[in-house]
Amino acid sequence: MSRRASPFEKWEGLGNDFILVEGLPLNAERVRRLCDRRLGIGGDGVLLLDRSPARMEVWNADGSRPEMCGNGLRCAAAWLVAQGLAVPPEGLRVATDAGEKRCEVVVVEPDLYEVTVDMGCARLTEPLSVRLDDREHHFTSVDMGNPHAVTFESHPEDAIDTIAPRISMAPPAGVNVELCRMIGPRRIEVLVWERGVGRTLACGTGACAVAAAACEAGLTPYEAPIEVVLPGGALTITVASGTRAITMRGPARRVFTGQVVST
Ligand SMILES: N[C@@H](CCC[C@H](N)C(=O)O)C(=O)O
Q1: The domain 121-250 belongs to what CATH superfamily?
Q2: CATH of domain 4-114+251-262
Q3: How many angstroms separate the CA atoms of 177 and 180, rounded?
Q4: Active site annotated at which positions (predicted)?
Q5: Atom of ligand 1 nearest to the CA of 68
Q6: What is the ipTM of this complex?
Q7: Is 203 a catalytic residue?
């Protein structure tokens, strides 16, 4: 039996880590094996990338296919630049299942990049209320291409591991859950439970959804940079008033390279 080796790179954005591959045939089972932290490479997801035209396809660690990934997109854009792709003056355009996104990539040091992304417009959808263990939980639903349930209600300390996984199963397709606390006029602390992954150190689309929900609730102003502080670090998010068009700025780092070996 012949063994084929395909190159991969491992990248992370605030500890949200991804296996980046090009031209590797994927299915749910293969993605689960690649993302397994003991039996595979380990990661919160796999990003299948094309250079020309630039495109990112996202897979969650459980083998499901979300529409969009903010931290992943910063990694994908930085990867394209690291491959030597010529970047037009107006920035890089990367196609995703949630539409084309414009990215600006700055090299900070070898293997570390700062990426600013036009994430498109946050869309507020039907609020979500869930009754669990005799308590009603209220969430602002925000569509960033993928679905988010955001709350500023106070919760017990373990809620991210106890309540959030149950909320994340909300029909029809599940949601990413963000438990938030204002810690300054333009600073928000957030814990994330990601659909198809579990608790992660950061979520880019989640940070955008949180900022949009906070502006909508009058907790922080539109048009000014908001610092969203996640366990893995902070992202800077700006929400335009009216359109709710969002920009996200944060790091992307190449961690290692290797080969996927398969028979
Ligand atoms: N980590 C991501 C979001 C990845 C997709 C998400 N788990 C979903 O199922 O929608 C981000 O940085 O945005």
Answers
A1: Diaminopimelate Epimerase; Chain A, domain 1 (3.10.310.10)
A2: 3.10.310.10
A3: 10
A4: 69 (proton donor), 69, 203 (proton acceptor)
A5: 5
A6: 0.99
A7: yes
